[in-house]
């Protein structure tokens, strides 16, 4: 007689954490958050803890004046769908740079953030 309510309670107990695990959060980056580099990087990369939608995720880098210094809107790596990356068309001069990322995870949730690094 009380089996049905217990079954429903167990269903929700297991369903809610599964939904939360599907969001994508940044896991690592290159350059690292807040890094000071002696040599300018040729790329910026952000790894996430789950896969991203290819068409809806962007990564751009701006200099201290707000000018975009990266190529296009970045892209999700073709072999690793948890990696978002962009390249720099020419070496970055010394200065402070901000990496802006905007993603849509496979579960449809949007996320965005930014971090800085410095080239000496």
| Unreliable stretches | 7-20
Question: Order of strands across the widest beta sheet?
Answer: 1-3-6-5
Portion of residues within helices: 10-25%
- Gap from first CA to last CA: 71 Å
Query: Biggest sheet: strands, sense, closure?
Result: 4 strands, antiparallel
Q: Categorize the overall geometry.
A: elongated
Structural class by secondary-structure content: alpha+beta
Could you give the order of the helices and strands? HEEEEEEEE
Protein described:
By secondary structure, this protein is α+β, with helices and mostly antiparallel strands. It is built from 1 helix and 8 strands, in the order H-E-E-E-E-E-E-E-E. The chain has one helix spanning 3-21; strands at 26-30, 36-37, 43-48, 58-63, 75-76, 83-87, 95-104, 110-119. The strands form 2 sheets. A 4-stranded antiparallel sheet has the order 1-3-6-5, with no helix packed on it. Strands 2-8-7-4 form a 4-stranded mixed sheet, with no helix packed on it. The longest helix is centred in the N-terminal third of the chain and has 19 residues, at 3-21. 18% of the residues are buried. The model is unreliable at 7-20 (pLDDT under 50).
